[in-house]
Amino acid sequence: MNWSERDVPDQRGRVALVTGANTGLGYETARVLAQRGASVVLAVRDIEKGKQAAARMGGDVTVQPLDLSSLDSVRAAAAEVRGRHPRIDLLVNNAGVMYPPRRTTSDGFELQFGTNHLGHFALTGLLLDRLLPVPGSRVVTVSSMGHRIQAAIHFDDLHWEESYSRVGAYGQSKLANLMFTYELQRRLAAHGGTVALAAHPGVARTELARNSPAALRTVITWLAPLMTQEAAAGALPTLRAATDPAVLGGQYYGPGGRGEVTGHPRLVTSSPASYDLEVQRRLWAVSEELTGVEFPV
C-alpha cells in the first residue's frame, strides 16, 4: 500500500526513454530508473538542460534532442533513437505543456493538443516496433486530473480556432492521453508482449503551472505546502506503472490520498468519458491522419 522508490526493482539491462526528462516529473522518473541500473535516454527540447540533468543523475544516461511540438523533430528523434537502440524496454510519454496562451505548433496544431497528445502519439508509433519484440516492454503515458475538467474531444474544433480555453484545451489533451492508452492497449493485447498504461501525479510542485493565469498561480503558491507534493512523489505513479511486476495493461495509476492529490501510488480510475470506445477509435483515426504515422498494431 505504501509503494515507494524502494520498491522499484532492478532495471539493469533495460533501455528506457523518458520525454521531458530534464526537470520535474520526468527528471525524477529518469533519475530513479538510472539509479536502478537502466540505460536511460533523456528526450528533451533543451539539450544543455538535458546534459546538466544527466550529469546530476549519473549512471548510463544519454540525451536525445526532441521537440514534441514539431513532427519533423519527432521523426528525426525517432530515427536517431532507432539507430542507436535495436530494442526499447520502456517508453515514458511524460513531457507536456499546461495553460499557455493560445499558440500553435510548427504543424499548425493547438499547442497543448499537438504537444501533449499528437507528439507522443507520433513518437510512440515510430518507436513501437522496437518495443514489440521485447518481453515485458511498456508504454506509459502521463495524464492528469485535468482530464476531468472541462474535458471533451472537440472533433469539430480540435485546435480551438473558434474560441480558446486554456483549461479546456489542456483537459482535451490529457483526456486524449488516456484514450490513446486504452486504445493502444487493445491493439497490443493481440501481440501478448508490450503493454500500455497511464499515470497521473496528483498535484506536484513542478514548473508545469508556470503558464497559469496570475490569480491561479497565487492560489497554487499559497496552498502548495498544504495540498501538493514534491516532484519525486508525483513521479511515483509513473514509476509504478513502468516497473511494478504486478501491473496489467490498460491500468491507470495515481496518488492514493484523498482526492488523488497526494499520497503513495495506487490503481485509480479515470473519468467515464475516457472509456468511450467509439471516441477512442475516432481519436486514433484522426491522430493517424494528422500525424501521418500509422502503428504496426
UniProtKB/TrEMBL annotation:
UniProt similarity note: Belongs to the short-chain dehydrogenases/reductases (SDR) family.
Protein name per its UniProtKB record: SDR family NAD(P)-dependent oxidoreductase
NCBIfam families documented for this protein: PRK05854.1, PRK06197.1
Xref: Pfam families: adh_short
InterPro entries assigned: NAD(P)-bd_dom_sf (IPR036291), SDR_fam (IPR002347)
Record keyword Transmembrane present: no
Origin: domain of life: Bacteria
CDD domains: retinol-DH_like_SDR_c_like
Keywords: Oxidoreductase
PANTHER family linked to this entry: PHOSPHATIDYLINOSITOL-GLYCAN BIOSYNTHESIS CLASS F PROTEIN (PTHR43157:SF31), PHOSPHATIDYLINOSITOL-GLYCAN BIOSYNTHESIS CLASS F PROTEIN-RELATED (PTHR43157)
